Write the structure tokens for this entry.
Amino acid sequence: MRQFTDTRTHQSVDELWVVEHDSVYTLGQAGKIEHILNSADIPVVQTDRGGQVTWHGPGQVVIYTLVDLRRQNYGIRGMVERLEQAVVNTLAEFHIQAQARRDAPGVYVKDEKIAALGLRVRKGCTYHGLSMNLDSDPAPWQGINPCGFQQLGVTRLVDHLAEGVEFDRDSTINTLLQALQTCLGS
């Protein structure tokens, strides 16, 4: 991501990279080690994204947003709001009511976090991005104060699907990607 960002030009096309990581805790630039309560056998990696501590792993989609903010003509706050809105719109497709919180970036269902954001801006372009919990194991969240908040509940999409609704990972990710493209104006 850094290499892509450092070598891109004004003509470089914005990209969304979709990944699923092995289990890992990441500390953002504001990350404080005391928010890792028990890493057990999960590696801890320092990153250059914004934010505190989070977990990435199987059952969670991570989308790296490599976007030229100058070309899009919006700032970092506008980018954060667009990412949050894309997740809210995706969850609405499943009849799940979600909202963003200005005091704690990310997307929440009731008071539990379902999607986290962590960005970095260099040369007017973003990298890093968002993660959304689909059907991940909830246990790793017990090892940290997610995003630096003590006792912040974390939830998954599968916990909120209406009875009889089948979870399809690929179509869920495609719905999120379409929502991102709409919200980002790509």
Summary: The chain is about 25% helix and 25% strand. Residues 76-93 form the longest helix (18 residues). Strands lie at 15-19, 24-27, 44-46, 53-56, 60-66, 99-100, 107-109, 112-122, 125-133.
